[in-house]
Amino acid sequence: MFASTKLQSFTSALFIYALSVAATQELTLKLTGTELADGVDNLKVLAKLTNTGDETLQVLNDPRSVLTSTPTNSFVISDDDGASPSFNGMKLKYSPRRAARVNGTNTFTILTPGDSVEVEHDLSYSYNFTLSGQSSYNIVPSRTFYVADPETLQVSRLKAKLETTHRSRLQGRLAVSRRASNSRVKRCDDCEQDDDDGPSFQGCSAKQKRQIKRAVKAATHYATKAFHYLGNHTESTERFETWFGNYSKTQHSTVLEHYTNMVNQGYGNYTYDCNTCDQEDTFAYVYTEDFGTIYLCSAFWAAKNTGTDSRGGTLVHESSHFTQIAGTSDNAYGQEDAMELALEDPDMAVDNADSHEYFVENHPHLD
């Protein structure tokens, strides 16, 4: 009888193990496109993402991924000599975990096993080939996606298997002016300014102007406090290493320069656009070539003025993207990924916009 019970227990354990092994999450990414592009405005690729596992996946429509046509830096492009185009698209703030919690109408793409989704990308919206020139380019898509548990909405990263990349020959026109029909850019010929020394507004309601002014004060306070903190702490601290990795004088000097630039620029000297962005899960974005304008999105208005992922912090995040301030990228989003980035690659952490934001928000508090 004991042997029978033992056998039943072993069989049950084996069955549970078999179920866990059988349940796999897997995405496969394939890239196709034009082989000869006569002008960069004809340089287009089609990204096909397929659920090749056996679980239905809720994949976040991360604007940095190929799941959306948002002109972010979603591709690595180079020719055989290593020449690459310059990126001139959007740099933005997005939080996968916040997006999953809110669970809006366009937050997820649902893929059942075997299902696919295709998204076309016009690379002329994001890349300028003027310096790299006419050549044959290898185009490799970002493989990083975020999936959410359908019950808990907990988010995890999932790297897609790459079935194919793409190679295209570019000739003729190498760059285009950004088109308002796609990027929705509006020149600020009709901006409003309530105070001579205050921010300018584009399409903002009276309530939004008040919220922006409070965010400007918070961002100014954040940047100033960070500037003084780094001036007073010239050795390693828990706060510095949490967000920027192993301390070095070079790293410290670089980060201090970034916050110095923020303080000198001031947040009352930007233009804040309230009616251009229509992305519900994005906080804000900038075009780094258009210094001075920050486009505010739905998640910005829903955020608190201070604290983690705040309005004030968002302005610090976005301003850091401008070349004149820090020229940061979006290497990691969210506190967990930013802390992991600091541990694994301090150089990339110093180049990461969210790391700059979380350092100034300092929530929870670190000394």
Summary, kept brief:
With 367 residues, the chain is of the alpha+beta class. 34% of the residues lie in helices and 25% in strands.
Textual characterization of the structure:
It contains eleven helices and 20 strands. With 367 residues, it is α+β, with helices and mostly antiparallel strands. Mean pLDDT is 92; it is low at 15-20 and 179-187. It is 34% helix and 25% strand. It folds into two domains: 27-171, Immunoglobulin-like; 200-361, 3-Layer(aba) Sandwich (Collagenase (Catalytic Domain)), CATH 3.40.390.10. α4 (206-232) runs antiparallel to α6, α5 packs antiparallel against α11 and α8 (311-321) packs antiparallel against α11 (353-361). β16 and β17 form a beta hairpin. A six-stranded mixed sheet has the order 7-19-20-18-17-16. The chain has a four-stranded mixed sheet with strand order 9-3-1-14, with no helix packed on it. It has a four-stranded mixed sheet with strand order 2-15-11-5, with no helix packed on it. Residues 1-24 form the signal peptide.
Provide tags for this entry.
globular, four-stranded mixed sheet, Collagenase (Catalytic Domain), six-stranded mixed sheet, 367 residues, 34% helix, alpha+beta, Immunoglobulin-like
Helix and strand topology:
Blueprint: H1 2-22, E1 27-33, E2 36-38, E3 44-51, E4 57-60, E5 75-79, E6 86-87, E7 90-94, H2 96-102, E8 108-111, E9 116-122, E10 127-128, E11 135-141, E12 144-148, E13 155-159, E14 161-164, E15 166-171, H3 180-183, E16 192-193, E17 200-202, H4 206-232, H5 238-244, H6 249-265, E18 271-273, E19 282-287, E20 293-296, H7 298-302, H8 311-321, H9 335-344, H10 346-350, H11 353-361
Parallel strand pairs: 1-14, 2-15, 17-18, 18-20
Antiparallel strand pairs: 1-3, 3-9, 4-8, 4-12, 5-11, 6-10, 7-19, 11-15, 12-13, 16-17, 19-20
Domain Lysine-specific metallo-endopeptidase: 228-361
Pfam family, one: Aspzincin_M35
Cofactor: Zn(2+)
